[in-house]
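Marked as duplicate of an earlier ticket. Keeping the data here for the record.
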Amino acid sequence: MKRLLLILVVVGLFVVGCDSGGNSDNEQLPTYTSPSGITMVSIPSGTFNMGTDDSWDNERPVHSVTLSPFNISAYEITYAQWMEVKTWAEANGYTFNMPGAMGGSEDYDVSHGMEDETHPVTTIEWYDTVLWCNALSEMEGRTPCYYTSETQSTVYRSGRVDIQNEWVEWNANGYRLPTEAEWEYSYRANTTTKYSFDYSINSNDANYLGNENGTTPVGSYCPNYWGLYDMAGNVWEWCWDWYDSGYYNNSPSKNPVGPSVGSDRVGRGGSWYPYAVFLRSDLSRIYDPDSNVYYLGFRPVSSQ
């Protein structure tokens, strides 16, 4: 299969042999490197049609969503990045529920000989990703987004706390998980097709259907039109939102943050092992927030 040469440079990982996107309606978006070395892409405000009327009930109806500008990591968080922040956090009052692993394989073994620290971190709970985002915020001197109550007086630094929408400082300059709407907007990148690449997808476009026998280093495939890598395939990505099969019927039209209550959190993007249908732009999957599996990772966003 087509494999792309990776070059590791100070500002991040870049894939050689990819163009910047062939859609004339898209422009190369600005990027910057955070103090901790995470490449962030600045996503403009805009309006798009979220969901589909052609699939499962929980993806219906198509509805118009308008989002404020935000920044999103160009890559899934690697094991190396995970460990750098986690090490700092544990020395500064944080505790995590899972240690994290270097990607994963079809043998349910995260050490099948292909992984290294440039693979996405996996086997982390939703709670761990939220803790990590807060830790990264504090490590960079930013204001954390997640708190343990509506008063927003205590920063979330340990345990398994089912944080509610009202407990989040959405306008803080710290890091957080993308909302489901922000994630889909970023994946689509001004496209309206089933996949951000086209109406179909193949093994040259993404790591899926076991064609790599496990995860690959982040950025091993070409980015979407907005310069975001592995939005389809490699690992599922945690989003902020609680899951509610009927939420799209009542979703706010501006900056929706998901249902106020629930028992499962949303994952997006598909991973290295399922069929192409699971990589669709509009498909949601649900996970218990304490799920820690070898095909589930994340990427952070920030509002400023």
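See parent ticket for discussion. The mean pLDDT is 87.
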